[in-house]
Specification:
With about 675 residues, this protein is an alpha+beta fold. The chain folds into three domains: about 1-255, Beta-galactosidase, Chain A, domain 5 (Distorted Sandwich), CATH 2.70.98; about 265-345 and about 395-585, Aldolase class I (TIM Barrel); about 585-670, Immunoglobulin-like.
């Protein structure tokens, strides 16, 4: 069966080979593992192929084919494997597949792992790759600080669990992608709800393999059928942008549309995190004069303004006036013509166990009133998030109502203009018998409903509001994408991560998405605005001002804004406002892994904005750069950071000899006809 320039070939054992032209890209197969033995090994009986048949599915009009066969054993096992393959005209670079197994025998069939599919890449991934390692994007949120995309080492192994990790992160985007300088293959599930499956990746001397698999022990009763997940297999040329964009399109076809940003989502912001956990109201309002000079109109009240997770009342030591003082602080910010966001961690709640930094957890008042609201694990232990906190069950209507009340408190009563929702990953399946779940997974499936409530309640109260969801150091959980109008690069550890994550979100949320680049102090040199702005991000900062030895004595890190830094910050804010690239159209014309130097390009009206980056910060690059995306006309080239004109080129492609330190940001301006 063929789709565009690719085809699927079925073998007698119901293994599938994906070809692009004559090149075998990947082999796919299903496996039912029971105590180390694959119950679907060998050749099946009664192999049957039907189709093609034109069908209307939940994704649209499709051409459908079905293959099936029965695997038998001397002990009387009869398992039917059925594979459905769908081709959609709107996605010519993809197949949608689904595997299912049915027990046709008279006895239960037990297994502990169900791979559907397992995938092994062909030798193309390492052959003819200019001596470089292949790259991979892996969307599972496995640990803080992870590179979303990276060159694959050998050996390598990662489980990529898509569910909640106890006392850690979890969730993410259920997609893995492997590519070299010529082509790539992606594997994803496209279910509209999160699933607690694994997407393991392994690299060894035999090659590169991946899978989409359940590791939950299961007994398939006679006559019973187990359905696998709806699975995307696609092929591309270039980096992760195209497969992520395709994945987003398939989610949108199921109603999961990314939230549309408003003008305020593209405004630069200052965050109080430079003051760390003990920011004072006077410190929040004290930076207003310097922010006015820099042209920054958004301020974020960050972590630990509150007494305890779950109750979210102002701390008595930093906000002794309580909610009244909080409102006064917000009023002062508004009087200065600025807006402000509030940091919080929905669903997190203290149950008297543990601590975070200097804060020892107590029993939250809300848990005194409703001790049965929390999620319990299968062994009846308390499920805990990355800060060791208990978790409210988002599937409970009472919890949803409580979150709605908190949102109104922050936005209506205290008058905040939006949210910084932080440490947002996923939640585990819930086994709390008091919740009467029909399925434990109802809790993780309901996670998005809580963020929908926050987003829609806030937008209804303030149409210009900004709702930022920060999955600190990891990719986001896909079901939350419709409920954040500002993505964030989420604690990047380098300038390269900032740029990579900006491109990641432009693919996932749309080429004009608002992507908060996070605090510039996290970039290389702590001042790399070129990476934040040139790649299409919204610049941000967390400086401390004015310099105060008493403040410095209480902080772990000092991010004071010196007079020299003030001049630099102001110049970059002027650069940003002059060109406002963040709301331009990101064009996927360069491979982030293999095109050197690293290049990003954004279109605004008739202009193209190119950003070139040396491999390392403060490194010099000297050589040629290619300018893609030009129309067949003449362009004047302008280094808009240093206001230097670099001559004229003619499209549709041009090559320019350059020499720069760290970065070079150019605008290509069409000459008058």
């Amino acid at each position: 069966m063929e789709n565009w320039n690719a085809s699927l070939q079925f073998h007698k054992d119901l293994q599938i080979v994906l070809f692009e032209g004559e090149v075998p890209l990947a082999e796919m197969h299903a496996a039912l593992w029971s105590e180390g033995h694959d119950l679907l090994s060998g050749e099946p009986e009664s192999v049957n192929f039907t189709g093609p048949e034109q069908l209307r599915t939940s994704l649209g009009s499709a051409l459908c084919r079905i293959a099936s066969g029965v695997f038998q054993s001397p002990a009387g096992m009869n398992i039917q494997l059925t594979i459905t393959v769908e081709e959609y005209p709107r996605w010519p670079d993809a197949f949608i597949l689904q595997w299912q197994v049915s027990n046709l025998g008279g006895e239960p069939v037990s297994f502990d792992r169900y791979s559907c599919p397992g995938l092994r890449l062909g030798s193309w991934i390492t052959d003819d790759n200019r001596g470089e390692r292949p790259w991979s994007l892996q969307g599972a949120a496995v640990h803080w600080g992870q590179d979303f995309a990276f060159p694959l080492p050998q050996p390598y192994e990662r489980d990529n669990f898509l569910g909640h990790l106890q006392n850690a992160e979890g969730g993410g985007i259920p997609l893995v992608y492997f590519w070299n300088a010529r082509q790539g293959v992606a594997l994803a599930h496209v279910e509209p709800q999160p699933k607690n499956w694994y997407m393991p990746v392994k690299v060894n001397t035999q090659g590169i393999s991946a899978a989409l698999e359940s590791r939950q022990r299961f007994s398939l009763m006679p006559g019973e059928t187990l359905q696998g997940l709806r699975t995307l297999v696609s092929w591309h040329h270039g980096d992760f942008f195209a497969p992520l964009s395709l994945y987003s399109s398939i989610l949108s076809a199921q109603g999961l549309h990314p939230a549309q940003p408003n003008a305020e989502d593209f405004e630069p912001a200052w965050c109080s995190w430079g003051y760390e956990f003990d920011v004072q109201p006077a410190e929040m309002t004290g930076v207003i004069p310097i922010l006015e000079d820099l042209g920054i109109r958004w301020l974020t009240l960050d972590d630990r303004w509150f007494d305890g997770y779950g109750d979210w009342n102002p701390r008595t030591d930093t906000f002794p006036g309580g909610g009244r003082q909080m409102r006064q602080m917000v009023d002062k910010i508004h009087q200065a013509g600025a807006h402000t966001q509030i940091w919080w961690y929905p669903l997190a709640v203290e149950d008297g166990v543990g601590r975070w930094e200097s804060h020892h957890y107590r029993m939250a008042d809300i848990l005194h009133l409703h001790p049965d609201w929390i999620i319990l694990n299968a062994d009846s232990s308390v499920a805990r998030n990355n800060r060791g906190l208990a978790i409210l069950d988002p599937a409970l209507p009472e919890v949803q109502a409580y979150i709605a009340d908190l949102t109104r408190r922050f936005v209506q009563e205290w008058d905040f203009d939006g949210h910084k929702l932080d440490n947002i990953y996923t939640v585990p399946a819930c086994y709390n018998l008091a919740h009467h779940h029909q399925r434990p997974a109802e809790s993780s499936e309901a996670l998005a409903q809580v963020y929908k409530i926050i987003f829609e309640t806030t937008r209804a109260l303030k149409s210009y509001s900004v709702t930022q969801i920060c999955p600190c150091g990891t990719p986001p959980t896909f079901s939350l994408l419709p409920y954040m109008d500002q993505a964030v690069t989420a604690d990047p550890t380098s300038s390269a991560q900032i740029r990579q994550r900006i491109k990641f979100y432009k693919a996932l949320l749309g080429p004009r998405a608002a992507v908060f680049a996070d605090h510039v102090e996290l970039s290389d040199g702590a001042d790399d605005f070129a990476s934040e702005i040139g790649a299409g991000g919204v610049p941000a900062t967390k400086f401390v001002w004015p310099e105060d030895p008493l403040v410095g004595a209480r902080l772990k890190e000092w991010w004071g804004l010196t007079p020299e830094a003030q001049v630099l910050w102001k110049r970059w804010m002027e650069v940003y406002r002059s060109h406002h690239l963040a709301d331009g159209e990101y064009l996927n014309l360069y491979d982030l892994a293999y095109d050197k130097p690293e290049t990003h390009v954004i279109r605004k009206e008739q202009k193209l904005y190119f950003a070139f980056y040396a491999e390392h910060h403060d490194q010099e690059y000297q050589g040629k750069v290619s300018l893609y995306g030009l129309e067949p006309t003449a362009y004047r080239l302008h280094d808009y950071v240093h206001d230097v004109w670099l001559g004229e080129v003619r499209g549709p492609q041009a090559v320019l000899e350059v020499r720069f330190q760290s970065s070079l940001l150019l605008e290509a301006i069409p000459t008058a006809k």
